[in-house]
Amino acid sequence: MPHFDLCIIGSGSGNTIVDEQFADQSVALIDQGVGPNAVFGGTCLNLGCIPTKMFVLPADLARSPSEADRLGVDLTFNRADWKAIRDRIFGRIDPISAGGEQWRASSPNLTLYREHAHFVGPKTLQVGDDHVTADRFVIAAGSRAVLPQIPGIEDVTVHTSDTVMRIDDLPRSMVILGGGFIAAEFAHIFSAFGVDVTVVMRSGRMLRHEDDDISDRFTELIEKRVKLVRNASITGLQACDDGRIRVITDQEPVQEVDLVLVAIGRQPNGDLVDVGAAGVDLDDGGRVIVDDYQRTTADGVFALGDVSSPYQLKHVANHEARVVQHNLLHPDSMITADHRFVPHAVFSDPQVASVGLTEQEAVRAGRNYVTAVQDYGTVAYGWAMEDTQHLAKLIADRDSRQLIGAHIVGPQASTLIQPLIQAMSFGLAVPDMARGQYWIHPALPELVENALLSLKFDD
Ligand SMILES: Cc1cc2nc3c(=O)[nH]c(=O)nc-3n(C[C@H](O)[C@H](O)[C@H](O)COP(=O)(O)OP(=O)(O)OC[C@H]3O[C@@H](n4cnc5c(N)ncnc54)[C@H](O)[C@@H]3O)c2cc1C
Ligand SMILES: NC(=O)c1ccc[n+]([C@@H]2O[C@H](COP(=O)([O-])OP(=O)(O)OC[C@H]3O[C@@H](n4cnc5c(N)ncnc54)[C@H](O)[C@@H]3O)[C@@H](O)[C@H]2O)c1
């Protein structure tokens, strides 16, 4: 039975842990692969953040004629060459994945297993036909797309984000089930490329976990481009003779479309790793329970990323991997993970970015707060953009004058929010942030400056 100093399950964020500091340790890295081709390197690189954003950029370009038109420039969108876009994107990503795998396979102190692993006892894994033991383990096994139980779903081909980016041809029409991150991003991508998109969602608005003002504005704007079927469920799927899919909902007339994309959340993979056999507990949501040091309930077993985190974001998984790396190397001076101000962005059109509390959460938490809403159109660059639709919303504690939430819906939201994340992380009070630095004129961050100045603490 092979025995290692350290065993890591998962080649996504888990793959970042082992560097030259582990040169004197024997390491097993185990990964069954993700997606239809079981590729190495995890979700973000192969099926998540990276390819989606590589599709978002050409989608933004495809949308530019409507923006240009408002500014007096006559552009025409002719066609998105889907195959060329797809092959460029995966022509870039696949070699990175293959190169990473090759590099790991040739590391002198590391043994790479490309098989499914599951625990069969404390610190004992079954990997294919082998049993592997180790002194310490890191569970970085990620999450998987959830498929709903809909009558007829087995009779048709239903896509998830794992497969939809590799299809051969653009569909003419599609239904997206779900109203969250993935639905928002793919609704933008496919509708920009000319696909007739319908989003079927359980709630009344998209991105419903965002601040109400942001979610409402996003829903209003995306609805100009895609059809929204609200407060609805898909009650049946049927294969049509012409290869299309008949989608039956409890709201709308039956619709026949070329493609159905399911985006109703991702479930952590701890169950499939049988973590219970190793004495590792899961919470009610199926997540591996970890403490602030990323330690599980089993001695010497750490976990990180989607398998244990409520955030399911790559920057969180990366941060936790750095914490686990430190704690493996320095067991006598461990550090804790910092989850105080976890931001996120949705790369749709419009973009959405957020950090901290929504106003609804501030109310529920009983906070004494002030808010400011600043329209893009109130700052000089927003005038240049002729913007009338996008906004930033800040929430600050009335007593401490610290920001407790920041939310932006509009162009460059994911970039504009960064100084606000910085202010919250380092405890910079609103008046100091607003007036303690220059803001380049007439750049778009003046939106942030003006939003800060609009927070009135003395009313
Ligand atoms: C479409 C999409 C877009 C996204 N966009 C963004 C974004 O823009 N920004 C952002 O921050 N986040 C984004 N995310 C989320 C982000 O991809 C994840 O949070 C992140 O990749 C999780 O990393 P991880 O290391 O926890 O898991 P993963 O990267 O999924 O790695 C887990 C690895 O474990 C392996 N594994 C699992 N079980 C076993 C087993 N039993 N045996 C062997 N190997 C196993 C898998 O093969 C996989 O390689 C997106 C996700 C999706 C799906
Ligand atoms: N830009 C980013 O950072 C980014 C992009 C994509 C994905 N992600 C990550 O991936 C995760 C998964 O994305 P997602 O969009 O699948 O999940 P999500 O949690 O963002 O949204 C899921 C949506 O599906 C709905 N839903 C849940 N169960 C349903 C059911 N049975 N029937 C109908 N609707 C149902 C929910 O109400 C919600 O609107 C995200 O939570 C996020 O953490 C991040």
From TrEMBL:
<dbReference type="InterPro" id="IPR004099">
    <property type="entry name" value="Pyr_nucl-diS_OxRdtase_dimer"/>
</dbReference>
<keyword id="KW-0274">FAD</keyword>
<dbReference type="GO" id="GO:0050660">
    <property type="term" value="F:flavin adenine dinucleotide binding"/>
</dbReference>
<dbReference type="GO" id="GO:0004148">
    <property type="term" value="F:dihydrolipoyl dehydrogenase (NADH) activity"/>
</dbReference>
<dbReference type="InterPro" id="IPR050151">
    <property type="entry name" value="Class-I_Pyr_Nuc-Dis_Oxidored"/>
</dbReference>
<keyword id="KW-0676">Redox-active center</keyword>
<feature type="domain" description="FAD/NAD(P)-binding">
    <location>
        <begin position="4"/>
        <end position="320"/>
    </location>
</feature>
<dbReference type="Pfam" id="PF07992">
    <property type="entry name" value="Pyr_redox_2"/>
</dbReference>
<dbReference type="InterPro" id="IPR001100">
    <property type="entry name" value="Pyr_nuc-diS_OxRdtase"/>
</dbReference>
<feature type="active site" description="Proton acceptor">
    <location>
        <position position="441"/>
    </location>
</feature>
<dbReference type="InterPro" id="IPR017817">
    <property type="entry name" value="Mycothione_reductase"/>
</dbReference>
<dbReference type="GO" id="GO:0006103">
    <property type="term" value="P:2-oxoglutarate metabolic process"/>
</dbReference>
<protein>
    <submittedName>
        <fullName>Mycothione reductase</fullName>
    </submittedName>
</protein>
<feature type="domain" description="Pyridine nucleotide-disulphide oxidoreductase dimerisation">
    <location>
        <begin position="342"/>
        <end position="451"/>
    </location>
</feature>
<feature type="binding site">
    <location>
        <begin position="178"/>
        <end position="185"/>
    </location>
    <ligand>
        <name>NAD(+)</name>
    </ligand>
</feature>
<keyword id="KW-0560">Oxidoreductase</keyword>
<dbReference type="InterPro" id="IPR036188">
    <property type="entry name" value="FAD/NAD-bd_sf"/>
</dbReference>
<comment type="similarity">
    <text>Belongs to the class-I pyridine nucleotide-disulfide oxidoreductase family.</text>
</comment>
<dbReference type="InterPro" id="IPR023753">
    <property type="entry name" value="FAD/NAD-binding_dom"/>
</dbReference>
<keyword id="KW-0547">Nucleotide-binding</keyword>
<keyword id="KW-0520">NAD</keyword>
<keyword id="KW-0285">Flavoprotein</keyword>
<feature type="disulfide bond" description="Redox-active">
    <location>
        <begin position="44"/>
        <end position="49"/>
    </location>
</feature>
<feature type="binding site">
    <location>
        <position position="306"/>
    </location>
    <ligand>
        <name>FAD</name>
    </ligand>
</feature>
<feature type="binding site">
    <location>
        <position position="53"/>
    </location>
    <ligand>
        <name>FAD</name>
    </ligand>
</feature>
<feature type="binding site">
    <location>
        <position position="265"/>
    </location>
    <ligand>
        <name>NAD(+)</name>
    </ligand>
</feature>
<keyword id="KW-1015">Disulfide bond</keyword>
<dbReference type="InterPro" id="IPR016156">
    <property type="entry name" value="FAD/NAD-linked_Rdtase_dimer_sf"/>
</dbReference>
<dbReference type="InterPro" id="IPR012999">
    <property type="entry name" value="Pyr_OxRdtase_I_AS"/>
</dbReference>
<dbReference type="Pfam" id="PF02852">
    <property type="entry name" value="Pyr_redox_dim"/>
</dbReference>
